[in-house]
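## retry 2 of 3
previous attempt timed out at serialization; input unchanged, resubmitting
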Amino acid sequence: MLDFAGKRWWYLGVSLILFLVAAVILAIPPRLEGGIEFTSGSSVTLVFEQQVEQEDLRSALADLGHGEARIQGAGANEFLIRTRVLEGAPSLGSAEGPVQSGEIDQIQAALAEKFGPVTRKDFSTVSSTVSTEIARNATFAVIAASLAILVYISLAFRHLHKPWLFGTAAVIALVHDAVMILGLFSLLGKWFGTQVDTGFITALLTVIGFSVHDTIVVFDRIREKVTHDPFIPFTEAVNASLTETLARSINTSFVVVLTVVAMLLIGGVTIRNFLLVLLVGIVSGTYSSIGIASQFVVAWENDDVGKFFRRLTGRKEEPEAELGPAA
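## retry succeeded, writing output
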């Protein structure tokens, strides 16, 4: 049996350092590069028949009055272009589609004249009002998911002493995973202009579900141990549970990671950010279920922080209580 709990402060210490680094990166402006869904603007994918360099395309758009345009390669002579809101553009989800005449048609005609035939694959526009609503709803979705998880796990483990502790530990673990992802995308946004969109939020919620699922598997095994043997030391119950579920957690995550990596290699640019969030989140979620959630419960149960401060102040140790079944 591996002694995970005995090394809990190594796991928690590393997690805390990574968390603080990600938080500092996230705090440095610009925090995140928002896509048009969050900042308003227009997005279009253009495919050229002839060879076109990204810098030449950027220069041509600047000449057309769109020096703010962000250009991202999406394949051979294919570019994803984001600009300010274009006049006469259909809104996101408009039934009229990209055939509506407007400023985008003028841009496309000018680019075709300079670079040769060009095909418009997709086009969408989001107003500032819609982008604000999307950002607000996305925030509410993440908060609501976290609160629901806290309540559900607390109810599921209500027959144990301090059931709220398990729910709190699960939420702390998923907050860690979320901040890791946000910190990474903040860094990518600063270096490479990587933007977050609604697909990012979808992937983030998926990661939250995956992380909590892995954590619940471990917690459920802990519950079985302490229910079957109420006198087993809680640290021993955690070590046994983690040892028994370790192979399952790693194997499951490894298979998912292989699938995500394969999709990253062969998938298009439109789902790249979604897959990157999944990749980072799955790895972080697997670690947090082992090195954060369970270790936090053990640290709280053993009153590690309280013991540390009592040693500093010279106070006597208090007797420990075990997290057995509730009376």
